[in-house]
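Predict the 3D structure for this chain.
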Amino acid sequence: MKTGRHGKLRLSLAAAGALSLAFGLAVGACTSVDRSIVNPDPETLAVSASNGYLSPPYPVFPRGNTLMQSLPDSDSQVRQFLSFYGGVSGVSFPDLMRDLLVRLPNRNLDIAHNGLNVSSGDFNSSLVCQSCHDGDWKASGTDVGNMMFWSQPSVQDLYPNPPPNSLAANWSLFGDWSASIKALAARDPIFLAQVENTRNLSPNQPEQVDNLCLRCHSPLGQRQAQRDGNLFSHYMLYSTPTGSNYNNPFPEQPYAHSKYSVYGALGRDGVSCSSCHSTSPAGGLPWNGTDYTVFYGSDTQSVYGSGVSNRLKDLGDTTQPPPFPFTSSMNTRPGTVVAPDSDLNIAPMAAAGLSLETATTQGSSQPYLRDATICGSCHVVVLPKVPDKYSSSLTIQQALSRGGYSKPASCPPSQTNFTGNFLTDPCVALAYEQTTYFEWLNSSYATQTASCLTCHMQLGTQTDTTAGSLDVAQVNGDLTKFYGSDTGLTPRQYNRHTLLGINLFVHEMFQQFPDILGIEYYLKDGSLIPPYLQDLSILNKTGNLVLNPGAESGNANGWVAEGSQIQAVRSEQGSINPNHGQYFFTVGGNSGGKVTLSFDVSQYADIIGQGDGTVSVTWGAASYCSTGNPCPALVLSQDSGGGSQLVNNTPGTWTALQGALSLSRGTRNLTLTLPNGSRVDDLFLALQFPVGSVASLKDAKRQYAVAQNLLNAEQSILDLAVNTSKGEYNPKVPAMKAYVSPPTVSGSNLKVDVTLTNNVGHKFPSGAGFRRAFIQLEVLDGGGNVLWASGQPNPWGAICDGVCNSDGGNYLPSEFTTNPQALQPHYQVITRQSQAQIYEVRVVNDYNQLTSTELQQFKVVKDNRILPLGWVPPSSRKPSEQLLGLNLQQLAALTEPESSVLGNNDTSITDDPDYTAAHAPGVDHITYQIPLSAVSGWQSVRARVNYQTIPPSYLSARFKEALLDGTGKPTTPGPAMSRMIYMTSRLNTQTGLKYTPTQQSQPVDFMNNWTMVLGEWTQSAN
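Done. Predicted structure below.
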């Protein structure tokens, strides 16, 4: 295989494909790899051995180019799953058919754009960005495209079913992002089911539930709707344009109608490109380096109104939380695209109706887009603690009588009833549902400059260029209307946009049910043409013909002055700043003076000449004029017909103006006129041709297959779990490492010491509060039979009391309890099989019952998640310590481990030195004392780190909420919950994905018994 135009280009990527991943093969990191694999032809492959481990520069596809297939309805595992959960949850499941499930619209319908008007206030969806930032869809032969790289041929030979063509991996910005959990956030079947359930539990304000939850999972759709005075409804996710060929499943729901299709497109786009790349100060760049409301939000950006801090603490609390509302409250500026680099070619973005700017931090060489503050915007989740049956008729005394509700410090003494709006009610407390960002800030990782990007957007380096530099956009003939002659690209540091954690279970749902979740974003099988470019409104439209629309070149070249002058200025009168970018145009001079800019459109003469009005011009600008004076009109004229003018009727602020002009037959020139007194920014002018005037785009004939992006993401998830937890390829440092000391005999007991090491920059597990991890400790005889077990899961992930029975029915009572005192406490010593070390955060509702419902998390009763290295307790922080705009002592108090499982005097965590050290060691030590009488003939001890993103207790709670009404009678599940029931029961966990821990020679299944096995260590008796 040849490398095509890349020649000897070789990548040594920190997140490159791990050779330790294979489909049922023990392909180890160091010892079990065939030498023909690790010493390939240097023309096609490269090896980096800087740390003694292979870091191959190519992706590995364990299943070739085939997505994992779900279980058929007739599979016995489906019946067993439903039978188990029917029993533990006390519900009856409906018969569901795949063809009758409500499907989400395909991603090729997620087209939303600003019409080239950068000042419109409209967001663009990711399909606009795909046009330039995807892999090269015009590649031919073996000439792979920009940011696309070959799969390793030696590993390809090991596939059970090799693909017919060579495989290339799309590691472009869009290719990586499009299969990330960020991109899929609004299609997440678990999330959507929980939103649906929560709506039903809050019938007084169902749309407010949607608007709140989708603020994080569909930020652009929610913000666009909010700007237009609408609440964002989850029904909008099903809204598509008229004629889209998508059958609206909710015709009776107004929010699902085509009227809201733009919101739907932006909403389904998940955490889209502009969620991060339009985050900038309201007044424009540079960011001053001190106003953190840009990222964390302020009262004006908060759905909770003012007084957030007092709603985050109970009466009498001494800990004052930060004043920021977080929960995706960052300041976004539609039309702005901020990048972390300087000296960029802004012309293509300007032609596409966007303002490309450097994310500059005042007084710093580090652009803020490389900081973790962008991630912190969404990864501090603040949610209200809504009492059951909340409404304006519920009295505060009634809520207090339940035992779990307490008044927040913001609640006025005179208020007796709730207001009926839980978002702004001062007597509805707020709580931190997720604090991943706080956990990182209060660890040693933050001070060592290891940011979120280090692990979740790992840096790629090229051996023959400046480290990490790569052209991150493509140029081809079909993009001429955007690039024109400005095809120069500045090589940039290349951070892969993988943006993943290790939520393999939800990711498998996207692989196994792509038809239901609407994953397809190409219009035709085998076609890689971006759908946006094929949209008729774009295909038949030129790019912006104004070459310097925002004066960003710092000059006014091309303009002709008549009794006037035009300048590109950074500000005027000390208070007028650009609408976008660093400059805007100002026109001044004698009374009656003007400036003009001409456009030669003779190249379109044939189309214009087909008849009057068949070609039109859309044009406009952002205009600013002083109060007290009439605003001058902007004029567009043509050389053989009438003209058009636009007037700003809102002086004192930048106002977006837009108009249209039909071109007369014979028109060859257009002239834009700005009279004296004009201040304009973001000028745009584009020709719109009749449908059919422009030839359709065509794919190139390629001799290779582009691997499905979901498979790239799968590989990145597995790498992050076991090979690249700290941003560098090293199988000796998995995300969670288990170590078993040599067992010893102490009296009548077998003593086993287990150490778990947390190698990630936050608590483990982190993120959604219902995730958990646990130790599976087993004593085995010489035949590998389990003699004694703590933490062994049954086929559905429920932890058994000892070795699981054949039916898995001997699960621990703590697995499905609602009583917080029946939970497994935090252990330092385990002596019985009925005890299991489970790392989790558990909360109770206002009745003091355990819950995983997002809006009813009133009090944490257990949080023993393993701390990150260097986490500092509040007592070791000084009151004045600050980092990235936040008080570290406050963050320490807000992320402190705690437990009341054993009662008010529970010391299980405060007595554990791993959790109370002045600087956390990032580990947990636990001792197992096992009666020798129970393990006669033992030969080895095995410890596993099991991780569950969808634990059994969570699933059981959702099933109960959906299938039983408030009186306990059976009810019909909603469409999202029906999808979740179908997908969880048919999820095929026999993926064949394996890896070999460095300490042992035998491979381990990544997915086993509805858990993800993150680490294993076997210690023999000898």
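Confidence is low (pLDDT under 50) at residues 1-57, 462-466.
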